[in-house]
Fold:
Amino acid sequence: MMKLAIPAPAKINLGLEIVRRRSDGYHDVVTVLQALEFGDTIHLAETNAESIDGQPSVAGLTHQSDLAFRAAYELRKLIAPHRGVNIHVEKRIPVAAGLGGGSSNAAAVLLGLEALWGANRASVHQVARSLGTDVSFFLDPQTTLGLGRGDDLRPLSAAPRRWVVLARPERSLSTPAVYAKSLPDHWSGGRNTLALVDAIQDGRIENSLLLNNLQAAAMSLVPEIEVILKSLLKTGARPALVSGSGPTCFGLYNEENTAQAAQHELAEHGWWTTKTRFRESAVSPEELR
Structure:
């Protein structure tokens, strides 16, 4: 029986600007998504049983509330009603952290089952779209512009590589709660992020163009975020921002040794933290091992 281990990278938002609130309650955004080398690993194993087995990625979740398992169930409905698989999530990405962990897990399961079950790419993309806006990004996790609800994805040239330090407080944040707290006065319409796209296409990252319109709302809900951001800046991060709806913060660094020192310093405060860097490319067939 075939077994696979598939990387499920985390992501950060290099820019996230809100354009408007839509009539359906969602928001139009302009965002740049950047995959990281840090992430989870999804282990898949074919089975003779006609069932989807394994422990959910987070204690307390059921298969139907875990995106990784939902991805398998939905794909099986479309293309392989009598196939079975065992799923194990080697979890490193914190839960509800603004790093896309659940969506990345789902995409990794879909990529693995494309190989194990012979699923066609159209079915894989159909299931990804049904599971959430970030899942489609993680099928091809490279530097990407996201428009509309974030689901209009447009791949960009690879951003110049930077070292990244991630740090987060203990408290989690719900994305709907952060959006509900965000005020139109904090929305900047996308001009900075579109200028960032031009810079990336030109092989540059302009630090002054990186901003997150959800940052003020996240800080109002979890004030400790502001302390983390100040600590990142103090260690030399340029810039330091909240990723997505938070609460995870990130700082960008040009040199690995500076990032390593920063990570050690933030760990002394008791925050969860890790050092990583931008992922160079999408998940390749060679990584499905």
Strands lie at 3-21, 27-47, 52-53, 84-90, 144-147, 152-155, 163-168, 240-242, 249-253, 272-277.
